[in-house]
Design brief:
CATH topology of the largest domain: Cytidine Deaminase, domain 2
Strand order of the largest sheet: 2-1-3-4-5
Order of helices and strands: HHHHHHHEEHEHEE
Number of helices: 9
CATH superfamily of the largest domain: Cytidine Deaminase, domain 2
CATH architecture of the largest domain: 3-Layer(aba) Sandwich
Distance between the termini: 71 Å
Number of strands: 5
Structural class: alpha+beta
Shape: elongated
Helix content: 40-55%
CATH class of the largest domain: Alpha Beta
Radius of gyration: 22 Å
Mean pLDDT: 85
Number of domains: 2
Strand content: 15-25%
Amino acid sequence: MKSTDRSPIEALRRRGCLRGLDGLGDVELLALVLGSCNHRSAGCIAQELIDRFGDIGGIGGADVTELVTFEGIGRAGALRVLASFEIGRRYVVSSRERVITKVSSPEDVAGLLSPEMRKLDREHFKAILLNTKNGILKIVTVAVGSLNAALVHPREIFKAAVQASAAGIILVHNHPTGNPEPSREDTDLTVRFARCGELMGIELVDHIIIGLDGFVSMRERGLTTV
C-alpha cells in the first residue's frame, strides 16, 4: 500500500524551503523529521508524540524502545527523531565551546557543559584544563561509570593536565538521579584531588556537580582549599 502522507509532507517541505523552518510549529518540524510514514500521517504521529511526552524536550529524552511503540514510526523513524535531537545537542555544545573560552565563574562551567551532561543516564567525569589565566586549553572525559558512580583516579586527570601543560583543572561530573547535591564520596574525592593538585603544582580550581535543574560548586562550599 502506498503512503497517504506523501502530498502533505511534500507541501510541508515546500513551505520549509520557501519560508524557512523558523515559521513551522513543533508538530510540523517533527513531521518533517519523520518524513513519509507507511499507512499513517506523519503529522498525526508527531501530534501523538507531543501529547504523550508533553513537549519537544520530553521527546528528546525518550529512547528508541519508547518511540517504536507509536504505530507508523518504526525503528528508522525513531532513529531519525533521536538523531535530530542529538545533532541539536551537539550544536549547542559546540557553540558554547566557541563562545566560552575562559572560565570566570561556576556559571560559566554549568553553561558550557550542562546541555551535554544534565540528562546523561550514567555518571560522566570530565576535566576542564586551564592555563594561567583560566583560559580553556582542553576538555577531556576521564571516566564513565554506572548510574550512581564513576570510578576516577587522580593519575588519569593529572596525566592529561601535565600533557597539556595546564596550570589548573576544573572537575565536572553529573548526577543521573538529577539531584546535584554532593555525596560523601564527592566530598572526599574533591579533597583528595585538591591535595594531589597542591603536590603537583596544578590547582584544583573547582569541582562542579551537574544535576537536572541545577549545579553545585564545591569551591563555593569551601572544599577545594587544602
